[in-house]
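Per your request, structure below.
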């Protein structure tokens, strides 16, 4: 599977499993009810899906220019960290506003989620590539 179809399937599956995890994490860490936590998880999911598609397109443009092909562990870690840093910048104001907490508290919450998502993203992307194969840019 290649192209836009790959990007859509990748993002939708990633976010489906992420919403399950994030809504539970928000409920447990903030004491926010299930409805409010799930709404926040859904909002962050929409932002994350849009960022995912944009970031992966940019990453693959960069990847096409590399002489070394494939996705080594170092390249996968770089991919995951770059994605998460960009996502924190995008989500910090939303999380702070929605939960009615300061930016510092929201950043602490985001750091916890980043630790989870760096590992989750690394494992998810490895599994996705094993099931669907590498994109043309990395093959």
């Amino acid at each position: 599977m290649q192209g836009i179809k790959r990007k859509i399937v990748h993002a939708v599956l990633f976010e489906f499993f992420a919403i399950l995890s994030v809504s539970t994490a928000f409920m447990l860490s903030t004491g926010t009810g299930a409805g409010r936590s799930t709404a926040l998880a859904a909002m962050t999911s929409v932002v994350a899906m849009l960022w995912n598609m944009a970031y992966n397109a940019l990453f693959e443009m960069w990847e096409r220019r590399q002489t070394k092909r494939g996705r080594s562990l170092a390249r996968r870690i770089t991919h995951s960290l770059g994605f998460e840093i960009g996502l924190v910048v995008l989500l910090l104001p939303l999380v702070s506003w929605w939960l009615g907490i300061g930016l510092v508290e929201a950043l602490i919450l985001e750091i916890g989620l980043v630790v989870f998502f760096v590992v989750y993203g690394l494992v998810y992307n490895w599994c996705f590539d094993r099931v669907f194969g590498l994109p043309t840019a990395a093959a």
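The mean pLDDT is 89.

Regards,
D.
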